[in-house]
Design goal:
heterodimer, A: four-stranded antiparallel β-sheet, 11 strands, about 0% helix, B: about 120 residues, mainly beta, globular
Chain lengths: ~120, ~120
């Protein structure tokens, strides 16, 4: 069983298109994240949701809109894709309750490689 | 505010020799520190974590790291490198901020293992 699964694994699309990346976790975690890894391998947090509520929203263009229908899912929708959006996007989840393994234990998905042409 | 600096972007070792990947951090809070590994075209895997317990932390695959507050360092070591250790390694710092924790990643160190 995959703990954190992202779909699709690869996504190639043209500039100006709108696309979505889906993430699901079956760990019972209540906090989920989106991270972006650029071409230099640097990872930066984009968003975090706790129990479907947005709690971290870094300086990200408003073309990016996360949606969490329930605490096991966090999707990322991107409008009007630009060349600079090409990157690997990682979904992650964690337990956020004090005294448990999280938030010090994060589980990452295997990433979605987005290429905008 | 917090940050993490990985001092080497690329490290090359021979198989069977020791590995040292260096990491320095800064944090306004008592930090939690992690090392993650990313093999080519794979996701991130947690190697080990420090969360204010023992300062010498043992992880998977024979890796360990020592938290040194006086030096603000959290270097990753392994006594004997294996070919399968070739990957990208990320040092990560996180404060505890209640219901959400924000990880700050270093820029990564690529470990090359040669015969």
């Amino acid at each position: 069983d995959t703990a954190v699964s992202q779909t699709p694994k690869y996504l190639v699309t043209q500039m100006g298109n709108d696309k979505s990346i889906k993430c699901e976790q079956n760990l019972g975690h209540d906090t989920m994240y989106w991270y972006k890894q650029d071409s230099k391998k640097f990872l930066k947090i984009m968003f975090s949701y706790n129990n479907k509520e947005l709690i971290i929203n870094e300086t990200v263009p408003n073309r990016f809109s996360p949606k969490s229908p329930d605490k096991a899912h966090l999707n990322l929708h991107i409008n009007s894709l630009e060349l600079g959006d090409s990157a690997v996007y990682f979904c992650a989840s964690s337990l956020s309750t004090l005294g448990q393994k999280g938030p010090y234990g994060y589980t990452f998905g295997s990433g979605t490689r987005l290429t905008v042409v | 505010a917090q940050s993490v600096t990985q001092l080497d972007s690329h490290v090359s070792v021979s198989e069977g020799t020791p590995v040292l990947l260096r990491c320095n951090y800064s944090s306004s809070y008592s930090p939690s520190l992690f090392w993650y590994v990313q093999h080519p075209n794979k996701g991130l895997q947690l190697l080990l974590k420090y969360t204010s317990a023992a300062t010498l932390v043992k992880g998977i695959n024979g890796f360990e790291a020592e938290f040194k507050k006086s030096e603000t360092s959290f270097h990753l070591t392994k006594p004997s490198a294996h070919m399968s250790d070739a990957a990208e390694y990320f040092c990560v710092v996180s404060p505890y901020t209640g219901t959400a924790s924000k990880l700050t990643f270093g820029t990564g160190t690529r470990l090359q293992v040669t015969l």
